[in-house]
């Protein structure tokens, strides 16, 4: 068949059009296309073949055959349910796991405590502006002295250096030497912010170390409760501490 003949035959073909929906069937929905019918029929026959295969397998099965899943399976309300086996752990194994948990928490707590000591060593001479826990108190005898009190004169320094809580030279020192360290207000503000950030980090690490200590105490309490010794709860467990129990004294042999 030549190419010209195929082209002429294709030109004579009528375009395929979907048939119109009859007015009487409008309430039943659109007509199903031929392609959709094929897919639905293929899916139906596939499921029927699977059901026949399962029926044949059930008929060929030996009713006296035993397999281990029988002892942990049952039918409830027509649904096949498999019982999940419970984990069998001895008290000694639980104690060992608790001990390992305590050792891990203690290891992390000790590491956190070392980081706290390093931060304290770096910041022991510094204090962030307005965030230091310590205060410098001056004691006077009368209210008149309170009104006339001059901090700069009392500290023997210039008024510009009164706000410094470290590296505050006296007037005699300023007469011999110049002020050491940064004096630019912008740089001083930046350094103060850095010190504040360091103190915030130190506070967070201290809180984390305390939380780890509380966790290790709670794990140790749960480990102690595994013993069969008679005990009475004295105090309930809180977010800041474990529960407190009073154990009956038993003499060990």
UniProtKB/TrEMBL annotation:
Bias (Basic residues) = 7-17
The answer, when asked if Nucleus is one of the entry's keywords, is yes
Could you name the domain of life of the organism this protein comes from? Eukaryota
Q: Which GO terms describe its biological process?
A: rRNA processing
**Quick one: where is this thing mainly located?**
nucleus
Q: Where in the cell is it found?
A: Nucleus, Nucleolus
- Species of origin reads Erythrocercus mccallii
Its keywords, alphabetically, are: Nucleus, rRNA processing
Q: Which family does it belong to?
A: Belongs to the UTP11 family.
Return the annotated region ranges for Disordered: 1-25
Q: What is this protein called?
A: Probable U3 small nucleolar RNA-associated protein 11
Q: Which GO terms describe its cellular component?
A: small-subunit processome
Checking Pfam families in the record gives:
Utp11
């Amino acid at each position: 068949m030549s190419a010209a003949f195929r082209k002429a035959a294709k030109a004579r073909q009528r375009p395929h059009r979907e048939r119109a929906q009859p007015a009487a069937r409008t309430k039943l929905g659109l007509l199903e296309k031929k392609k959709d019918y094929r897919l639905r029929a293929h899916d139906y026959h596939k499921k029927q073949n699977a059901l026949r295969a399962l029926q044949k397998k059930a008929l060929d099965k030996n009713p006296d055959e035993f397999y281990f899943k029988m002892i942990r399976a049952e039918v409830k309300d027509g649904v096949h349910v498999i019982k999940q086996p419970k984990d069998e752990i001895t008290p000694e194994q639980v104690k060992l796991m608790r001990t390992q948990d305590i050792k891990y928490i203690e290891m992390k707590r000790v590491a956190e405590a070392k980081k706290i000591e390093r931060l304290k060593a770096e910041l022991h001479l510094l204090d962030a502006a307005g965030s230091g826990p310590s205060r410098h108190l001056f004691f006077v005898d009368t209210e008149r002295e309170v009104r006339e009190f001059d901090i700069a004169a009392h500290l023997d320094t210039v008024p510009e250096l009164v706000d410094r809580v470290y590296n505050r030279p006296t007037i005699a020192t300023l007469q011999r030497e110049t002020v050491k360290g940064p004096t630019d207000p912008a740089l001083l503000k930046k350094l103060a912010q850095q010190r504040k950030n360091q103190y915030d980090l130190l506070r967070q690490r201290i809180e984390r170390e305390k939380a780890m200590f509380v966790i290790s105490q709670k794990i140790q309490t749960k480990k102690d409760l595994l013993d069969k010794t008679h005990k009475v709860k004295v105090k309930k467990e809180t977010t800041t501490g474990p529960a407190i129990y009073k154990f009956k004294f038993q003499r060990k042999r």
